[in-house]
Amino acid sequence: MNVQDPRFDPLLETLMNDLHHHIEHEKTEDMPRLEGLLSREESQKLAKDFEWTKMITPTRSHPSAPNRPYFENLVGLLVAPIDKIQDLLRSYPQEGRSKM
Predict the structure, then answer these.
(1) Are 8 and 2 in contact (CB under 8 A)?
(2) Which of 4, 25, 59, 77 could disulfide-link 83, Cβ–Cβ 3.0 to 4.6 Å?
């Protein structure tokens, strides 16, 4: 859908409301319930696995990337390091840039 479409803003607002509701449900209900079922070791292992996954996952969308299984994973692995470098450059202090 094009952003100029009059249905875009209401649809985006609905999606964001649904997403916020989903996140809140996970945070207040699903995650505490899961923590109650896992041992401390299992929880720590899953947390490490999640941190590893975040390291190899792109940080922004790539609309032209393929969305078919295996291809999307491969492209994700290739663009993730580029995204991470761009993130570092974007977060680099402004005063450091002016002295170059």
Answers:
(1) yes
(2) 59
**DSSP per position, 23-47:** HHHIIIIIHHHHHHHS-HHHHHHHH
Residue 52 tokens read as 């590893």
Residue type, 57: T
Measure the CA dihedral 52/53/58/64, to 10°.
150
> How high does pLDDT run on average in the chain?
88
Domain boundaries, the chain: 1-55, 61-94
User: pTM to 2 decimals?
Assistant: 0.56
HSE value, Cβ hemisphere, 13 Å, CA-based, for 89: 6
- How far is residue 92's CA from residue 73's CA, in Å, rounded to a whole number? 29
Specify the higher pLDDT residue, 98 or 25: 25
pLDDT for res 42:
96
Task: Round to whole Å and give the CA distance between 59 and 52.
Answer: 14
